Hints:
Blueprint: H1 2-27, H2 31-41
Helix pairs in contact: 1-2
Amino acid sequence: MRKPLLRKEPESDTGMLSQITFPRASEGGNPFRISFRIGSVV
Length: 42
């Protein structure tokens, strides 16, 4: 049960990081603001 969860955790993290990098480079603002935006969308 712990193995599948750990495998899915890094996958989700990579996707989130990729999305955060996209708006971050476009907006060039604070990472916190982008993090909140993604949290609202998810």
